[in-house]
Amino acid sequence: MVNVVITGGAGFLGARLARELLAAGALDVVGGGARPLSQLTLIDRVPLPADLAADGRVAGVRSDLGEPAGLTGAGRDAVTGADVIFHLAAAVSGESEPDVNLVMRTNLHATETLLALCRAAGTNPFIVFSSSAAVFGDSADHPLPPAVDDQTLPNPQTSYGVQKLIGEHFIELRKCRDVLPDQILLVHDCKSTRVAHDLRFIKDRGRADIPSRKNTWSCCSRS
User: Which of 44, 48, 95, 156 has the smallest CB count inside 10 Å?
Assistant: First the structure.
């Protein structure tokens, strides 16, 4: 059996991923073979979509990971008891520029809180962190190439890109210190209906296309 947590579980990506997991009914984690889905906990600041709230396999937790009080009660129990955590909660680019406090809380403090909970509990969940193609950016002296490859270096041009890059470093730091298994997922073209399908990369390592960025996968083409 496998317990899964999705932060941002009521959002565009989170809700679609939740439906994919429920439809599959099982998850193959790191090639260990398919294990039945036991519990799916969706953490978000807003209510869940009606279909997910009505599913008996889903537990909804209304909480803000970035708040000073952090995650308590059922949310804390879900995180510390998870086998897999999809950390998708984030303030998107349009929100990131005008409200610095919001994005610091949501994109940085929330990630730090999540990792600290796992460390304090001594658990070792597989964490999938959704980063962004915005970490590469595009500038006159360092233009973004047509395809991101093993020569592409981070070059964020927005606060959102900077925050996502810092989040990646948070994950890598915790991995080095706590032997925490993780993957970093670069998500772009989020209007694509393919995104939830491609989020199933955990079952299909063949989607890896950024060999220089260890444990980093990209989903959804820009076309």
Answer: 95
User: Could you read off the pLDDT of 137-153 as tens digits, one per residue?
Assistant: 888 888 888 877 667 78
CB atoms within 10 A of CB 74: 15
Q: Is the alpha carbon torsion for 106, 110, 112, 115 positive or negative?
A: negative
Q: Say if residue 39 is exposed, middle or buried (CB neighbours under 10 Å; 0-12, 13-18, 19+).
A: middle
Strands 34-44 and 26-28, how do they pair? antiparallel
CA–chain centroid gap for 179, Å, is 18
Q: What domains appear along the chain, each with residue ranges and CATH number?
A: 2-219 (3.40.50.720)
Instruction: Name residues whose C-beta falls within 8 Å of residue 219's C-beta, 6 or more positions apart in sequence.
Output: 185, 186, 187, 194, 195, 198, 199, 201, 207
Check residue 7 and report its DSSP letter: E
Residues labelled as active-site residues: 160
Question: Is residue 81 helix, strand or coil?
Answer: coil
Give me the mean pLDDT over the 65-83 stretch. Answer: 81
186-201, pLDDT tens digit by residue?
A: 555 444 333 444 444 4
